[in-house]
Design a protein that fits this description.
Helix content of chain A: under 10%
Number of helices of chain B: 0
Distance between the termini of chain B: 36 Å
Oligomer: heterodimer
Largest interface: A-B, 23 and 24 residues
Shape of chain B: globular
Order of helices and strands of chain B: EEEEEEEEEEE
Shape of chain A: globular
Radius of gyration of chain A: 13 Å
Structural class of chain A: mainly beta
């Protein structure tokens, strides 16, 4: 079993839809949870991060962490064609160099 | 502009021909890493460095070497490349002051080994 599981998609939605992206993980010691966005032929860039459990909102994006279920989510409201990218979840132990990534979910928002 | 640069961006080579992929960052970050990204496997860490002259293996270090002689540079060396090292490679850096492990990635190097 992989430490981090993520559905690779692809996921196609119409413009304006609410998108839900998810990851599950097996290591209960993970404390930091991140979402990276990767456009085609580019490196990943940090989109959102959360520490431990709870929600965090930033504009159209909301990140949720449920440590009891070992489940994290990223919600995108009013999705735009510019949101078309691959979204990678990532998580790490506290004060530790190693970050474990999901394989990424490819999202396409159709105008 | 704060950035991580990699060179070359694209490389086609043959089995056994030594190559080096350079990585440089201008953010004065202490930590640097190399990842490879493969379909269905995601990003996997090859090597990382916590400071000058301090390096350690990641999840998939076989067939790779690194060095960290200067803080800004972290080259990846393939002494004898093989076809299974065909992949997309990313260099990343982060500040030791970052409490949530935010990493800044370079643009990637697409390597094909024939």
């Amino acid at each position: 079993q992989k430490e981090v599981e993520q559905d690779p998609g692809p996921l196609s939605v119409p413009e304006g839809a609410i998108v839900s992206l998810n990851c599950t993980y097996s290591n209960s010691a993970f404390q930091y949870f991140m979402w990276y966005r990767q456009y085609s032929r580019k490196g990943p860039e940090l989109l959102m991060y959360t520490y431990s459990s709870g929600n965090k909102e930033d504009g159209r994006f909301t990140a949720q962490v449920d440590k009891s279920s070992k489940y994290i989510s990223l919600f995108i409201r009013d999705s735009q064609p510019s949101d078309s990218a691959t979204y990678l979840c990532a998580m790490s132990l506290p004060s530790y160099q190693k970050v474990t990534f999901g394989i990424g979910t490819k999202l396409q928002v159709i105008p | 502009e704060a950035q991580v640069t990699q060179n070359p961006r694209y490389l086609i080579t043959v089995t056994g021909k030594k190559l080096t992929v350079t990585c440089s960052q201008n953010m004065n970050h202490e930590y640097m890493s190399w990842y490879r990204q493969d379909p269905g496997l995601g990003l996997r860490q090859i090597y990382y460095s916590m400071n000058v002259e301090v390096t350690d293996k990641g999840d998939v270090p076989e067939g790779y070497k690194v060095s960290r002689k200067e803080k800004r540079n972290f080259p990846l060396i393939l002494e004898s490349p093989s076809p299974n090292q065909t992949s997309l490679y990313f260099c990343a850096s982060r500040s030791k002051l970052s409490s949530y492990n935010e990493q800044f990635f370079g643009p990637g190097t697409r390597l094909t080994v024939l």
